[in-house]
Amino acid sequence: MQNAILEQAIALGSRAYLGPGYDCGRFVGDEKGRLKRVQNDSMGIKSFEKSLNWIREKEGMANGRIRGILVPREVETCSLDVLRKTLEAADEFGFPMATHAAYSVIEFHEIVKEHMKTPIELLSDLGMLRPTLNIGHGNFISDNPNLNYAKANDLKLMGDSGVTVSHCPTNIIRRGRNLNSWEKYRSSGVNLTIGTDTYPRDMIMNMRTASYMGKLMSNSYFAAQASEVFNAATIGGAVSVGRNDIGKLEVGALADIIIIDLKGNNSLRYGPVRDPIKSLVECGVGDDVETVFVDGRIIMEDRKIPDINFPQLPYFPDLRISLPDLRIALPDFPWDKFLRIPGFIDLLKLLADLVDTVDLPDILGELEILMIRKLKAFISDVDFEMKKVSWPTWDELRGSTYIVITLTLILGLYLFFADLLLSKILSVLL
After folding, report:
1. Which of 30, 69, 210, 267 is placed for a possible disulfide with 36 were both Cys, Cβ 3.0 to 4.6 Å?
2. pTM for the complete prediction?
3. CA distance readout (Å), 138 to 3, 188, 292, 351
4. What are the pLDDT digits (tens) for 306-315?
């Protein structure tokens, strides 16, 4: 997956921080349908080492636009050794880090049960809390009244360290969750960024959702203002990867620039534009981006990407992948021939649904874990059955061996003489 993203990022001229995710296990359903955490620490170490090697190999590609990031997927599915090794690699090579933490009730209580610490306290004790640790979601902290947990002060720990929290408003509001208080996170010193986490990958829409949710949860019109969420989506993101030369228009900064259409066909949606940032956050959508510069190079102009003509893309109904996307991904495939086969489009739609809903690495990881579980169960069953066996003593074994050898010799001699006698009789008769 990361190799495919890397290839496309280079082809498009994008800037990207990439790194294969790794962990030691997953939550899986047991025989009664209940969630159970299954962990394999040695697998996690190997996965970390493989990811680190990949990152070091790709670091700095495309004139420095491709950078590495260490991604232990979830704090509760990574062993302490894996987290410590992640921190050591971050310190040695200067890589930023990203993980999911304080993102669910189950995760929160699993960590408390196992370590007698909240997820944030655990990360703090390991020394991982810093501006360049990007915590995905970070909304289920001890300060969240929905948890009713008064034995910690997670927000202060995060604020004192200046840790980054990637707020993904669209994702969590779908699940009836929220960032308890945008104002409290900012005033505490937390570096807030805006993430998408899932579809739609529309950063402008997510900024608007963050702004509205922030006002509602803070009970203040002045909370999560357009300028604040805009800064979170730009400068905040730059801080999260330890950069001060991107995410802003400033002398000495890299020329990463987008041009947005605030008029034209969208004038009715925008209305009068008195504050461009406010109008963008409250009225804009991702499709309003007209031109994109990365590192001073135009990679999209007038909504056109070189070699891709969007108005002519033959998107199939209910299909999330366009034919040109597939042609680019599989250039040697005989598309023209197969597109004439009845039912092929339906097959593509099915594959698109699978790609959208299934994480192949996760499935393979779960299969590996399942095989390990079955192997352990088999060994346990063998051990249990072996304990039922009544093993003879050495003297009994030796006596039995003598008897077997003696009987074997007697039987052998009997068969020898019987065969000899029968051979003589047959020779006389014949």
Report:
1. 30
2. 0.72
3. 28, 14, 31, 33
4. 876 655 555 4
